Amino acid sequence: MSSPAPKENSAKENAYAVFRNADFFRYLIARFVASFGMQMLVVAVDWELYERTNSALALGGVGLALMVPMFVGTLPSGHVADTYNRKKIILVTTFILALASLALAGISKFTPNTPDNVRHFEILMYSLLVVIGATRTFLWPASAAYVASIVPREQLSRAVTFNSGAFQLSSVLGPAMAGLLIWLTKGAWIIYALNGLAGFICFALVLSIRHEHKVPPREPVTFRSLITGFHFVFKNKIILGTITLDMFAVLLGGAVSLLPIFAKDILESGPNGLGLLRAAMPIGAVICTVIIAHRAPIQKAGRTMLLCVAIFGVATILFGLVNQQCFGKFFSAPNAVWFWLAFGLLALSGAVDNVSVIIRQTLVQILTPDEKRGRVSAVNSLFIGTSNELGGFESGFTAQLFGPMMANSIATGTILSTVVGGFGTVAVVLAVAWIWPQVRRYGKLS
Fold first, then answer.
1. Which of 421, 404, 422 is nearest to 413 (CA)?
2. Based on the number of CB atoms within 10 Å of its own CB, is 203 exposed (0-12), middle (13-18) or buried (19 or more)?
3. How far is CA 172 from the centre of its chain?
4. 441: pLDDT confidence band, cut at 50, 70 and 90?
5. How many domains does the chain have?
6. What CA–CA distance (Å, rounded) separates 136 from 129?
7. What is the pTM of this model?
């Protein structure tokens, strides 16, 4: 008589069963390649703009250029994702993003780095970033809803976990590769060109997916149909609370857009250091993904999410403080010590933030009917995406405000902006737990 298989082997098999779905596997690889290229591009844009302008406001402008199209395009993008073939939407938007990256490469390569050309360079860069932001506004809801349609419902939580893990892994490798290439080539244009190539590879992989989105009978384009996603989100207090929590946590606590200043002026680690700092949060997130994938679904999802966002806020405060400028008078240490302390705190932030992301994305897909997934996903993208970009603008503005505008150095302004944002994140956790008790009471993530 044969003995039953060990529980550990059974759990491992269940954890990776979703990879037997060939369409999901192709899609996961496609999104990883595209995200890898985009992560390189973001680092290159931030570094090149700061190198050419030496302005924190220029970094904040990147977030603003990517955010404005999201406000304008969210309502139509959600409607399009629910009434047109989602696979075709992904293909078209991916192709446009690849072309925009090649245009960035041309601007970077052929615009001289001289004071006379700074304003001209900024206008061209921001214009293309607006195009990228508008295109991503239509890509994200179609992409999020498409994943839910190519895997069985019982595997959706695992699919979201691995999808998030693939994104985070690309966020580890992309910034590190960008930092290395900037150091080797002393220019950013090659990174933009590589992102264009990544877009075309993603296009080919998605094209090979056999699953086609079954388009329902099209609703007439009315204001009521356009705002269906907003109505559903505001009606469902759990989705509203979790989205609001993530939105304000990222808006206030995100210090990613200020990392070029930390790398150059505070931790003095250069472009290689910038690549490592940008990779720190994704490294923590990847480790977190591996752990979550091998565990049962989260039992107390609401409380877990609130706790993780609170830890994110505290880690952000400490990240802003662990440097020679803050503690040099009390504790003298080489720059490398401060750098790796900062790296560790960013990795911790990435780990706890990824728990929050997995819970939110899973809840949005599970609690939303398929015919509304595109519009609800568009609202989710608006809340979270704009908070990322607006958070970048807020961080750049407050760094400039607390720094040069108050006769302090840009480094001092950056530290103050980061610390204040961390305290704001903790305050948001307390507010959400009080306003939406349904969130803290939510149980098993299944």
1. 404
2. buried
3. 12
4. confident
5. 1
6. 10
7. 0.70
